Amino acid sequence: METPVEESENKVVEEKVGRVLEQAKELQESASSLISRTNNDEQSLRQRALSLDSSIRHLRSLIDSLLSQKLLDHKFADKLEEDLQRARCILADGDAAAFLPTKAQGGFLKMFLGPINVRATQKDVQLKVKEEYNSYRDKTALLFLLFPSTLLCLRSWVWDGCLPAFPVQLYQAWLLFLYMGLAMRENILQANGSDIRPWWIYHHYCAMIMALVSLTWEIKGQPNCAQKQRGVQLFLQWAIMQGVAMLLQNRYQRQRLYTRIALGKAKRMDVVWGETAGVDGQLWLLCPILFLMQIFEAYVGLQLLKTALVGVVPEWQVIFCGMLLVFMAVGNFINTVKTLMVKSRFKAKMKRTKSKQELY
User: Which residues form the signal peptide (predicted)?
Assistant: First the structure.
């Protein structure tokens, strides 16, 4: 039988537990009420964002229609178009972007992550994703330059002109990891509103497949090692050129991108892609390197095909990698030319606007 002291203690504990239970229920009700109000506010903001986005699209179509009918002055139309572009950047690059419809995630992300939403609702989190992508590109660009350079140097100084199979396969495994990491990050950036051309993501898919296939490619040695490894040697030389191009892009073009963001002509989530170019001085430096790299890439692919067809290394992996290299070179060339044409039209438009301003 309980004593009066024990009964008193039990009642005190029971009252405390009861208060805690009531507080938990009150907190749950308050949280539910807050979430309900937040959902209603979010729905209202989402409708306003959709309405504003639709208005911007409608006004752009209206301006184009008036210009085609010659009912609007070109100078005034350019000013309106610039204001609409700034409004679009504010909408797409600010906190309101979280209320715009999200892009559907591609099959690549679903294959590795499942049906998980990778879109960040807070802009600072999105920018951290972009910063991590830029950091990854910086680190891998240096490795892209040093790894094949080291292999070629060791081939000449240590391995008597004949590459062992294991270091080359280790390099191909690293390429598979590299391109998979780039493709994963670019898909996440695209889901968060970054303007990445689809071709460059597809290009990394092709590079992943080529690296995977090349891991099953038996690296031939002596006798006649130089002829059998000619394609591998050319591929390593092309990789060095690509590493140089990546370093130049990361250093110069990112500065230009920051300028465009400051002018309201690009979004903060946009990134430097493989074929972008900066100001005129950078164009003269980067474009020859890019075109030379694409021509050399196609040449390496053709050399691999020739090696397989003449019977030096008659393996299906050699034929597959050769065809894939030629395909990627053609795709890179077409996308680079398209970008330069867009830049040329934009510069011509700016010159026309400037000349009209001088007339006035």
Answer: none
